[in-house]
Amino acid sequence: MRVNFGRISPFAPVLKEISVDAALAVAPRPKGDVDALVHLAKDDMAAVDALIIARMQSDVPVIPLLAEHLVSAGGKRLRPLLTVAAARAIGQTGAIEGPKKLAASVEFIHTATLLHDDIVDGSEMRRGKVAAHLIWGSASSVLVGDFLFARAFELMVETDSLRALGILARASAVIAEGEVLQLTRAHDLNLDLDTYLQIIRAKTAELFAAAAESGAVGAGATDEQVAALRDYGMALGIAFQLADDALDYGGATETLGKNAGDDFNEGKATLPLLLAVQRTKGTEDLFWDRVITKGDRKPEDFDRARQLIVASGAVEATLDTASEYADRAKTALQVLPAGPWRSALEALADFAVSRAM
Question: Which reaction does it catalyse (predicted)?
Answer without folding.
Answer: 5 isopentenyl diphosphate + (2E,6E)-farnesyl diphosphate = all-trans-octaprenyl diphosphate + 5 diphosphate
